[in-house]
Amino acid sequence: MLSVNSVSKSYNLKTILQQVSFGLNPGERVGLVGPNGCGKTTLLKTVMGELPSLKGVVRLGANVRVGYMDQEQTGLEPNLDALETIQDAGIANETSARSYLSLFLFKGDDVFTKVHDMSYGERARLMLARLVAQGCNLLLLDEPVNHLDISSRSRFEEALLQFKGTLLAVIHDRYFIRQVATEIWELKDGKIEVREGL
User: Fold this and answer.
1) Which of 6, 15, 43, 134 lies most in the core, judged by the most C-beta atoms within 10 Å?
2) At what angle do helices 150-160 and 120-133 cross, to 10 degrees?
3) Hey, is 184 helix, strand or coil?
4) Are 104 and 156 in contact, with CB atoms under 8 Å apart?
């Protein structure tokens, strides 16, 4: 799905990423951990192509479509409701769109809630639903549960478990990692280390 080979990145002469290399295989769900400021978001944005690397190569597999969810939950149109958002993403038929939204826990009149009236948790689930509806099979999530209360986190995890693709999520929440991730990687001193145990 994704191959990162010897990628390096610096800011103001400080090395953030140092010869980072890893591969992601179909169906893997990785929790990426590490202290604040160590370069986790930088790594995701480099994989997305939003930031250039100083060295190294990022390659996506054939037929891989990447979806990115940032910490600020940007990208949703505030004046659309959940149903309109999913129809805009490619599921035009209302019955199909409502059925699809139910997988992400939008049921009944929930589908008519405008984005600007949604909670952080509802917006997170809608962003996830939109990315999957757009055909994304590799999700890069940057602190997706940062602003969510316990109930909202649980509902987001439940929705995320519906996704059958590959996942790389920057996350600090240990419960979320245990529920969602198949392995943990730690970004430390500019390099990736695989951690034992969830």
Assistant:
1) 43
2) 10
3) strand
4) no
